[in-house]
Design goal:
The chain is α+β, with helices and mostly antiparallel strands and 218 residues long. It has 2 domains: 74 residues, ATP-grasp fold, A domain (Dna Ligase, domain 1, 2-Layer Sandwich), CATH 3.30.1490.20; 115 residues, ATP-grasp fold, B domain (D-amino Acid Aminotransferase, Chain A, domain 1, 2-Layer Sandwich), CATH 3.30.470.20. Helix content is 30%, strand content 32%. It is built from 6 helices and 11 strands. The model has no long low-confidence stretch (mean pLDDT 94).
Length: 218
Amino acid sequence: MPATTSTLSEWESKRRLAAAGIPVAPEQLCADPAAAVAAAAELGLPVAVKLCGPAIAHKTERGLVRLGLRDAEAVRAAAGELLAAARPADGPVELLVARMVTGKRELIAGCATDPTFGRCVMLGIGGIFAEILADVVFRLVPLSRTDAEEMLDELTYRAWLGPFRGEPAIDRERLVDVLVGLSKVAEEDPQLRSIDVNPLIVADGVPIAVDALIEVEA
């Protein structure tokens, strides 16, 4: 009988990633619009605001994300709208306020459990090119730094990692840190089924996880 699974909230998922050395966008968890406004002021505008809870896995499809909010009133309005959009099935929800991270390149990364081979770390080209290029590489857990370096070199479009439209090359060491960190998270939790980091935005050469979801066996 297949194992029942559940998801951690985005906030909880990112805390696990951050503890493993994976860069995440600065963010705060807030209970109400007033707290969201205060968090935005502390983090620095512009910010993104999302509805956050362990039962909310697909925020974008439900319109539960507001990006590029540039002033307190925009944050307050977005926070109120998101809380009003919560459904009974969502259970307890809060607001996740994060500093906006921008970059011209996106990657996707994560960990999946293959029924034959077990857990694998994944890296691929993300953003609007993800489906077109379908450029993804895998390695089994546990992952060494050498394994991670090889993954970067095996990307068909590895030139994507170099200087791009005025932006510096991706910091390979930091990207290796991300892949090794994903392996570490998987190794430390035998109940973990998958990790989805999408997107991993490249900002000034540094890959930063701006959205993440961890699935575990219930």
